[in-house]
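Tokens for chain A. Residues wanted.
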């Protein structure tokens, strides 16, 4: 039963792993297509920037806030990191043919507090400390809001402050901007979160499948050892039974020989006794006066 359960568990994990890998491959293809900007491709290759990771690949977002971050960053989701500030300035000598963003490495700074609001930057987590400076600049003055603020709340905002809801709609003291997803970028951060989860899930399933295979192999080995021990025991029992049978036959043979010898000895004694009796009778008869043997 344990062997069957281990095999079933391993097979289920393997099927789930295959499904997760297929889903992961699909999402990776979609993500790759999001960066397939043909007009920009030649410019990136000319500046040896084509193989660099994009900004969206280096950030992780709190669940539910992906659309808000996409609304603020927009094309900057695809921003590329150059070596330093000088490299950033040098891009101006060969401008890209379409909208593009780049940044130089920079450290993080604490966002300014705003009573009643949470900086949107706190919903964003960098996997590379070098992008912290760019995130500080792009999220400066941007705060997250759970629900659309009413007119009174908007009018109380300081000048230049933007609050953004989960849907990506943006509010300032005097304006409202309704977000509409860019077809090229919509869902790119959610998909990345799914990719991360699938990669973790895939590793867990692979480990589970490997553990199930190891357990099944161990049980097979134990079963084989038990079968070998059983075969040895059966052979031993058969040998003992054979020895017992041979010993019984030998005992019967010896018993028969003993009985035969005993009977022979008894017969000899009886014969001798009879002969002796006959001889004694003859002698007795000769000693009589009326011996008929005379």
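Reply:
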């Amino acid at each position: 039963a344990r062997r069957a359960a281990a095999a079933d568990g391993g097979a289920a994990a393997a099927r789930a792993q295959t499904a997760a890998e297929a889903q992961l491959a699909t999402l990776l293809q979609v993500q790759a297509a999001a960066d397939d900007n043909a007009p920009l491709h030649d410019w990136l290759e000319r500046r040896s920037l084509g193989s660099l990771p994009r900004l969206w690949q280096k950030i992780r977002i709190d669940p539910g806030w992906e659309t808000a971050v996409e609304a603020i960053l927009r094309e900057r989701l695809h921003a590329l990191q150059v070596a330093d500030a000088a490299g950033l300035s040098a891009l101006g000598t060969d401008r890209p043919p379409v909208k593009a963003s780049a940044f130089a490495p920079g450290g993080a700074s604490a966002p300014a507090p705003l009573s009643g609001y949470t900086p949107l930057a706190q919903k964003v987590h960098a996997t590379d400390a070098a992008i912290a400076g760019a995130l500080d600049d792009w999220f400066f003055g941007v705060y997250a809001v759970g629900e659309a603020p009413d007119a009174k709340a908007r009018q109380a905002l300081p000048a230049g402050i933007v609050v953004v809801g989960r849907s990506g709609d943006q509010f300032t003291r005097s304006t409202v901007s309704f977000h509409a997803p860019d077809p090229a970028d919509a869902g790119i951060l959610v998909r990345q979160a799914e990719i991360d989860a699938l990669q973790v899930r895939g590793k867990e399933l692979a480990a589970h499948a490997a553990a199930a295979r190891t357990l099944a192999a161990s049980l097979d080995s134990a079963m084989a050892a038990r079968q070998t021990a059983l075969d040895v025991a059966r052979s031993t029992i058969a040998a003992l039974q054979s020895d017992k049978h041979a010993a019984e036959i030998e005992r019967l043979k010896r018993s028969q020989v003993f009985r035969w010898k005993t009977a022979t000895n008894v017969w000899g004694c009886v014969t001798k006794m009879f002969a002796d009796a006959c001889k004694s009778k003859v002698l007795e008869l000769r000693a009589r006066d009326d011996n008929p043997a005379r």
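The chain has a mean pLDDT of 88. Residues 188-287 form the longest helix (100 residues).
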